[in-house]
Write a structure and sequence with these properties.
The complex is a heterodimer of chains A (about 110) and B (about 110).
Chain A: E1 4-6, E2 10-13, E3 19-25, E4 31-38, E5 42-49, E6 56-57, E7 64-70, E8 73-78, E9 87-94, E10 104-105, E11 109-113
Chain B: E1 4-7, E2 10-14, E3 19-25, E4 32-38, E5 45-51, E6 56-59, E7 62-67, E8 72-77, E9 86-94, E10 97-100, E11 104-109
Parallel strand pairs in B: 2-11
Antiparallel strand pairs in B: 1-3, 3-8, 4-5, 4-9, 6-7, 7-8, 9-10, 9-11
Chain lengths: ~110, ~110
């Protein structure tokens, strides 16, 4: 089975801290994605990557950056955490090509910024 | 306007009963449509995926239907169980991009 592993289930950080959320997939997927999920707003795409060292902005990239140094790992970085970044963060990966076949989500990281 | 609309927003039924969740979409071009189940505090898990040429797809007690002409899909749950309590999300694949519905929150009461 494809596994997408997010390093933390729950995380509490202080305002202004630099926060790293890590995601690792084990199926050699080319594409990786970061979403946040908030009540009433559904899933919103933050950043995605189609290949190592490549990144593309999603719908809500402000306040975030990403890093993809290896194919299996995609990191989301909050340069200076703020309370409005309290949310559920979901990582996903898929094969390349149209249709996004093999699309698989991680278990999520619940981030609270205090 | 959201390109993927789900109804109802929430639904409460008794254990053992059947239910149907609806998804209407305007996404174009269309590659495939998926239904995901998301337990509280966890990531979404895929239930079914259908291309435009498929009308129905089953996964145990879950049956998804697709009418590509009217751009409507439904997810039917048979003989509901307490473990079916979750959010169900309809997702349409538009070439490289996924478009998410807001989800239906289903609660199964004993």
């Amino acid at each position: 089975d494809v596994k997408v592993t997010q390093s933390s289930r729950y995380l509490v950080k202080r305002t202004g801290e630099k926060v790293f959320l890590e995601c690792v997939q084990d199926m050699d997927h080319e594409n990786m994605f970061w979403y946040r999920q908030d009540p009433g707003l559904g899933l919103r795409l933050i950043y995605f990557s189609y290949d190592v060292k490549m990144k593309e902005k999603g719908d809500i990239p402000e306040g975030y950056s990403v890093s993809r140094e290896k194919k299996e790992r995609f990191s989301l970085i909050l340069e200076s955490a703020s309370t409005n970044q309290t949310s559920m963060y979901l990582c996903a990966s898929s094969f390349t090509g149209t249709g996004n076949y093999g699309y698989t989500f991680g278990s999520g990281t619940r981030l609270t910024v205090v | 306007k959201n390109q993927v609309e789900q109804s109802p927003q929430s639904l409460i039924i008794l254990e053992g009963k059947n239910c149907t969740l609806q998804c209407n979409y305007t996404v174009s071009p269309f590659s495939n449509l998926r239904w995901y189940k998301q337990d509280t505090g966890r990531g979404p898990v895929s239930l079914t995926i259908m291309t435009f040429s498929e009308n129905t797809k089953s996964n145990g007690r879950y049956t998804a239907t697709l009418d590509a002409d009217t751009k409507q899909s439904s997810l039917h749950i048979t003989a509901s169980q307490l473990s079916d309590s979750a959010s169900y999300i309809c997702v349409v694949s538009e070439a490289q991009k996924l478009v998410f519905g807001q989800g239906t929150r289903l609660t199964i009461n004993p």
